[in-house]
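Lecture 7 notes: from sequence to structure.

We start with a single chain of 350 residues. Read the sequence below before looking at the structure.
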Amino acid sequence: MKRAIRNTQARNSRSKAAKDVIIREIPAILKANPRARRGVEAAELIVDPAPLPTTPSAPPLSKTQSQETSSHPTKHNAAPTSPPTVILRTTSTLEAAHRLLTTQDASPSHHRHRPPKVAILNMASPLRPGGGVLSGAASQEEWLCARTTLYASLREEFYRLPEVGGIFTPDMFVFRHWGDSATELPKAERFYVDVVSAGMLRFPDLEETKEEDGEEKVYAEQKDREMVVRKIRAVLRIMRAKGAEKVVLGAWGCGAYGNPVGEVAGAWRRVLLGKGKSQGQGSGELGAGAESWEGLEVVFAIKDGRMAERFAAAFGSGIEVEEVESGARHSGDGAEDSQDEDDEGSEDQS
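Now the structure, written as tokens:
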């Protein structure tokens, strides 16, 4: 009973804080910050993006809901030189993005005297902008909307989100800390990242299979497995077509929406590396049609330690696991889907 009361109080507090950010702070920021304002105005819905061009003369994305108005044009003038690197960090989406932006490495982008192009996946509600942010929900999308200018770019006209594709928001401005306190970041520490907001399957039919270490839940229908692969491929196509060099992803759909961790991890592996590992993923190899993501740096930010372990085990070889010691506890961001008011599942998903 006491725990329920505390949870209600915490949710009410988050709701009040989020409304203040969305109604008061974000409009003031957009009025004063031209770059953040242009990012919001340039947001676009991209539906079922075409495969990426393989030559500089190849056509851009097709099947878009809007014209190509982004301030980040596609770049294909530099040939990829290395396969994707895949890292799992037990941290939040924003903290992972900040680390990618501020960690110096030997990539060509640093020799061009500019920060790397970083894009993150907003594991979004397909039904309404920001999911349950205004009612105090605390999953990843709500966490982002209460700390950045993202909410202003999620226009009602974009909803319901497409099955395959999502909203691309350039230059989302991060002005509050990713920890529970959500304190304002000093002006010198605020930063910009690109975002793809896309929705995963909600409450798919599952069945159990016997594994060496116990029973494992898998999709009951092959069509769901194939749809997840299509969704993942679309997100990566959008990110790469918009110039992303480093991306932050997650255990998409594995929380409130009830998708199996092993299936989702295996789907990410199939798309990124061209082959599958986990039980129930068909033939595994994608064959000649597999797309390449050479040179892309991929970070899976999964705050929940147990979920991170299961994800890494299901992904298999090719992923490096790192634990991140954070200065502040994160209770909502990292592993979960946005929660609509009618979603099932626990309130605090980490």
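The domain at 2-323 is CATH 3.40.220.10 (Leucine Aminopeptidase, subunit E; domain 1). Keep this in mind for problem set 3.
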